[in-house]
Design a protein that fits this description.
With 196 residues, the chain is mostly helical. The chain has a domain of 116 residues. Helix content is 66%, strand content 0%.
Amino acid sequence: MADSDNSTTLPSVTHGRGQWQKAHGEDRFEDANPALALLQGWLRAQHVSNLLCRLQQRLERRVLDAAASEAMDIKLGYSIACQAEVEATTAALKFQDKLPHIQARSLLGIVAKLEIIAGADRDIDDPTDFPWPHIASVLADLKEIAGNLPLQRPERTVVQADCRRYQAMAADLIGVEKQAAILHLGRGSPLCVNAE
């Protein structure tokens, strides 16, 4: 019996403003292009981290505006939001750490790797300093040759699930730290609950 999957070809790139042609499914697409899958995961973690950062900033404002009696509950929510942002950022950093170990299998794979490299430092360094304009130029050239990356924005439910997961991780961690703080208070040594 013949297996129809044996005739599946790998995704290809055409010249010029080429069109990316996917294989028969997303799984095969990711297998053929691990750098693209890595970029998709990194972008998702970055997006969730940014959302959690905005939540943390809103809660910080509420803590500053709150009366002393209601500040404790808001501070706990703020602490969880801060730690959740750290968890999401750590997830993005783990994707970045995988980058040197992933082989690009196409020009779009190279574009994906460069997108992560350029995107990782955009917020840290001055984007007008060397090498960022140069990397952006190479990236633009590669996109002109290879075409655009076939990325999909994650569904809202997926992003919300990620946010809840990082918040749950943070709440567990904060709960452990609060218990340790209570134990340390009896000894007179303060415990600082902060994000690394």
